[in-house]
Amino acid sequence: MDSGLATAMESGRSIATHPGSTLAFVQVFTLRGETALPSYGDRYWKDCQGNDETFGKHKWDKQGACINTLSAECCSGYSSGELVDYFRITVDSFKTLEPYKFLQTDPGGLLVFIMPSSTKNYTSTAIQNALTAAHGFRVTI
Q1: Which of the four CATH numbers 3.90.950.10, 3.10.450.50, 3.40.50.720, 3.90.730.10 does domain 3-96 have?
Q2: pLDDT tens digits for range 20-65
Q3: What does the domain layout of the chain look like in residue ranges?
Q4: For 91-132, how does the pLDDT look when each residue is reduced to its tens digit (9 = 90+)?
Q5: Which residues contact residue 115 at a Cβ distance below 8 angstroms, ignoring those fewer than 6 apart?
Q6: Whole-angstrom Cα distance, residue 104 to residue 124?
Q7: Using CA atoms, how far apart are residues 3 and 5, in angstroms rounded to an integer?
Q8: Phi, psi angles (nearest 5°) of residue 11
Q9: What does the CA dihedral 48, 96, 66, 19 come to, rounded to 10 degrees?
Q10: Within 10 A of 95 (CB to CB), how many other CB atoms are there?
């Protein structure tokens, strides 16, 4: 496997396995020398049905195409790595939002107590109310 295969996959817009290969979605990151993003995604970019790789592929196929419209001269050191760029920008933006903080406390200081858990479930209404309080307007989840 080489970076040419990763480029072919990216330029084809869909990251489904390249015909004739077994290259997985996460391997594109490895071929581009990016190991931190997949590790971060394993922890924070979760699929509600438990198939995280399919979720990442879906996000790229659905929204990643937008980054392909950027001019190469707009990105310093650009080297045809749209998939990695898209997820790096997405993760960097996510890190500025502090979503867990939004779910734990509203602006008035009232604790909402919505915490990541493998044993407790929260209703979508409770999550939506916490996010609405934090943002100051109704949010869609």
Answers
A1: 3.90.730.10
A2: 444 566 777 777 788 888 888 777 777 777 777 777 777 777 777 6
A3: 3-96, 99-135
A4: 888 888 777 776 776 555 555 667 777 788 888 888 888 778
A5: 100, 103, 104
A6: 15
A7: 5
A8: -70, -20
A9: -50
A10: 11
Contacts of 112 (CB under 8 A, 6+ apart): 103, 104, 105, 106, 126, 129, 130, 133
Tokens of 14: 């869909």
Maximum alpha-carbon separation in the chain: 56
The neighbouring-strand residues paired with 111 are 105
**52-84 as b/e, with b when 16 or more CB fall inside 10 Å?**
beebbbebbeeebeebeeeeeeeeeeeeebbbb
Instruction: Give this prediction's pTM.
Output: 0.56
